[in-house]
Design brief:
By secondary structure, the chain is α/β, with parallel strands linked by helices. Among the domains are: 282 residues, Amidase signature (AS) domain (Amidase signature (AS) enzymes); 54 residues, no CATH class. Helices cover 38% and strands 12% of the residues. It has 18 helices and 13 strands. Strands 1-3-2-6-8-7-12-13-11-9-10 form an eleven-stranded mixed beta sheet, sandwiched between helices. Helix 1 crosses helix 4, helix 12 packs across helix 16 and helix 13 crosses helix 14. The radius of gyration is 22 Å and the shape is globular. It starts with a helix and ends in an 8-residue tail after the last helix.
């Protein structure tokens, strides 16, 4: 007979207390905790017999129940994590590991379906309206399980992944673990995912990014965040946002760990009509080179570095990061690409006019309505009834949708890929990216670099500073971007991240460059405990 959920959680709590003696790692030869290291180091320790996945997973759950609760980073914990870890240990003993993620504790964001857990979307109303556990995993979670990863549970986020401060009506305000005052934002919307990896509760976590939702908390908590090429990671079993912008990807403490997560979740699947269909080979991501920056020409996009608005500390961090790039063998010079944050929206509109097309709209209501229908069609016997129940709460955030469910109902079954405004946006994206690519090739540029954000974590009471960022630029153009820590400020807070940005499809390339920078600079600093 299977244990009840309460019994399973009690077993987890008991197991969490058991390995602590051994987690001094076999008597004191080392004080290193594998949860604070890389996936590669963790797996090497498992192979040596220094620790097991079950022990480390129990340790991760202990951190979740202490630091995770303190920082309000957790939406829900899975009762199956320990049993999954034991299965991974059995595979290791039998020499049948499924790959580099086998036995690795990871998290998913609250908007992802995880079997046996409810999907709250970090929203109090949906937690009340849809309290029952779902019966299936999202596509990304199922791919992680197939790779042997251990799903610890789900992390807190902004309601329905809409805002960028880590504020959830369901679990409360996620706390920035670097801020002893508790007043500064961790960023969002993937706040809990960033905090969980910064604090060593997991090696990596799934997040989503429509306008910076992975990259913002990556910078504000001092970790690695990636927005892959649009469509590289198919979306299914996830509460939808903006289908023509929404991009799913990893957060981790180290670029190589983020690359391993991406390798597992990327690749074509027809369930997402907007996903890429080209062949995906994630194998190169398992072996990133430390010297990838040598003899590489990078471009500093001056339009994305608002020096006049940056603090002296932020400028010093940025200039030091450029010095690190050059020390690693790269050329890093100023570059004015054909498209920047100053003109990309106008470029999209102009491209549509030149085609005689309808105005492009990245947030057209019909695709979001259809994505919501597709989401519930896979988890509810009557998707219309489910949407009707949750509509007011969802629409309070996605207010481009019609005011009432009855007005929205006609949009639900209109295929998102047929929406005229969305398709015009996709065609303009292709035109604008072609112009960007042409200017980069003409200049011999391998990738663009600029600050992920030109400011660090702000006080929640103050709100967002009135400084333009390049976050939306990357989403509109569908570019792969990896955000890497560049150092800590005098106040003990992460001060800046560097973004490595390439053309669509160049995910492995920008990950390799980001990894080489990380190895040269070594700027990651864990939060104090």
């Amino acid at each position: 007979m299977s244990p009840t959920r309460r019994e399973a959680l009690a077993q987890i709590a008991a197991l969490a207390a058991l390995p602590l003696a051994r987690l001094k790692w076999n008597g004191a030869a080392t004080a290193v905790d594998p949860l604070d290291g890389t996936i590669a180091d963790y797996q090497a320790g498992r192979r040596r017999g220094d620790w097991t996945a079950a022990e480390v997973t129990a340790r991760a759950l202990e951190r979740c129940n202490s630091d995770g609760v303190k920082w309000r980073a957790i939406d829900a914990l899975a009762a199956t994590a320990i049993s999954e870890a034991r299965a991974a240990d059995q595979r290791l003993r039998a020499n049948r590991m499924r790959g580099p993620l086998d036995g690795v504790p990871v998290f998913a964001k609250a908007i992802y379906d995880v079997a046996a857990l409810p999907t709250t979307g970090s929203n109090a109303d949906w937690a009340r309206l849809f309290p029952d556990p779902v019966s299936r995993d999202s596509l990304e979670v199922s791919r992680l399980r197939a790779a042997g990863a251990i799903i610890l549970g789900k992390t807190a986020a902004d309601d329905f992944a809409y805002h960028g401060t880590g504020t959830s009506s369901h679990t409360g305000q996620v706390v920035n673990p670097h801020d002893p005052t508790g007043t500064r934002t961790p960023g969002g919307s993937s706040a809990g995912s960033a905090v969980s990896v910064a604090g060593g509760m997991a090696f990596a976590a799934l997040g989503t990014d429509d306008g910076g939702s992975n990259r913002i908390p990556a910078q504000f908590t001092g970790v690695v965040g990636m927005k892959p090429t649009f469509g590289l990671v198919p979306r299914s079993g996830v509460i939808p946002t903006w289908p023509y912008l929404d991009t799913h990807g990893p957060l981790a403490r180290h670029v190589a760990d983020a690359a391993l997560l991406l390798a597992a979740i990327a690749g074509p699947n027809a369930v997402d009509p907007l996903a890429r269909t080209d062949v995906w080979n994630g194998a190169p991501l398992a072996a990133l080179r430390d010297d990838a920056l040598a003899n590489t020409r990078l471009s500093i996009v001056d339009a994305h570095v608002p020096r006049a608005q940056m603090t002296a500390e932020a400028l010093a961090m940025w200039d030091r990061a450029v010095g690190d790039l050059r020390a690693a063998g790269a050329t890093a010079d100023s570059f004015a690409p054909a498209v920047t944050l100053a003109n990309y929206r106008d470029a999209f509109a102009a491209a549509a006019r030149s085609r005689g097309d309808v105005a492009p709209d990245s947030r057209s209501p019909a695709p979001t309505a259809n994505a919501l229908f597709q989401y519930f069609a896979h988890r509810a016997d009557n998707p219309r009834d489910a949407i009707r129940r949750g509509y007011a709460a969802y629409r309070a955030y996605y207010d481009v949708l019609p005011a009432t469910f009855e007005d929205c109902e006609r949009l639900l079954t209109q295929p998102m890929e047929h929406d005229a405004a969305g398709q015009s946006f996709a065609r303009s994206r292709a035109d604008v990216v072609a112009a960007l690519a042409k200017s980069m090739r003409a200049a011999g540029v391998a990738a663009m670099v600029y600050p992920t954000l030109p400011f660090n974590a702000f006080r929640l009471a103050d709100g967002w500073p009135n400084i333009s960022t390049a976050l939306g630029y990357g989403n509109w153009l569908g570019l792969p971007e990896v955000s890497v820590p560049a150092g800590m400020g005098a106040d003990g807070m992460p001060a800046l991240n560097v973004s490595f940005v390439g053309l669509p499809g160049e995910d492995a390339h920008v990950l390799a460059l980001a990894h080489a920078y990380e190895r040269q600079s070594r700027r990651f600093v864990p939060p104090p405990r």
